């Protein structure tokens, strides 16, 4: 009897040894090595006992129980580590989606980044991201991964379509072929799909659309569903940002001005800043003798130069302390986004470049491209000086505004470094009183 128990113990110890070896990398090193040494001793003891070289006064039943315990502990620990690994992967994926949402400038780049992460994270054979237009009561495919048109058509089919049901009921849905679900359409069966997971994309009372995953896999665990739901929530945030960007592009210029006010409301310390930049830029441009059209355009450029701050999170805009490197990266994107927003506005195409380069510096240390000297468009160089002067003389929550004299001194000091010396020279010809009037003016220059 003891011999049979010994055989069973050795068998369990052997399997436990190989599993421990296999999962060694997933365990803390010292635990893995300790288990391997322990199992080696137990195996050696068992083999010596079997061959009659060694006879320890120890109950074989006890050895068997210890072997079973170690075996179960290794299986449990390895599953735990597997789950931990997966969780880490999901967290990294969610972080990546956050990053894409935060830094993406165009709908394409945002959705492209999200699709890539979803393909890496979700165990499925294809998915579709569908948007729902409430006003038109219409659905359309926004992004596709690995599904053909026929499948999308089938999913979006009006009457009994699965997607319409998800949109109507605003509920997570899982349909499975293996459960003989009546709703599991014949065409999905014919394509050999076994499971469909549908998630409505809900933002407060609005249904923005739905996510549909198709898989040949028979079932999904609760954890997997939770991960998918987490990603669905991120997609809602992304779609919301995308729709905001698209809406802005459709707006006409008056509405964009309203947007300037909205930005100043988000960042109250810069209230009136865009108007001040526009006012000073127009007067400075007049000295250089430019045309009426250019004066009009520079006025728009002054008003809209920081409109891209709409994409900068409030937590960064209003941060009372200095920004960290990651936050600066986001902040430095605002001229690029401003230009993106202005680009499609009728008749304002020319100012896109001026706005894009308004944070470049004469010595080439600015952003976004580090242009130098006259490589920087003339009106961007004008905006840079007006922008800095307005910012310097205005009060901020953390400091009082500089006097006109100190601000002028600063601009003089940075002539040839941050600013075009020729424009600085012209700027300094504007009198203190005149600049004060421009700063205090509450209507746009004409
Ligand atoms: Fe700016």
Structure description:
The chain is of the alpha+beta class. The chain folds into 3 domains: 86 residues; 144 residues, 2-Layer Sandwich (Beta-Lactamase), CATH 3.30.450; 190 residues, Hypothetical protein af1432. A 5-stranded antiparallel β-sheet has the order 2-1-5-4-3, with helices on both faces. Helix 1 runs antiparallel to helix 2 and helix 10 packs across helix 19. The radius of gyration is 33 Å and the shape is elongated. The mean pLDDT is 83. Bound molecules: fe (ii) ion. The site of fe (ii) ion (FE2) has 6 residues, from helix 14.
> How many separate domains make up the residues?
3
> Hey, roughly how much beta strand do the residues contain?
5-15%
Q: State the secondary-structure class.
A: alpha+beta
CATH topology of the largest domain: Hypothetical protein af1432
Q: Regarding CATH, which class of the largest domain?
A: Mainly Alpha
Gross geometry: elongated
Largest sheet: 5 strands, antiparallel
Give the radius of gyration: 33 Å
The CATH superfamily of the largest domain is known as Hypothetical protein af1432
- Could you tell me how far the N terminus lies from the C terminus, measured between alpha carbons in angstroms? 104 Å
The helix content is 55-70%
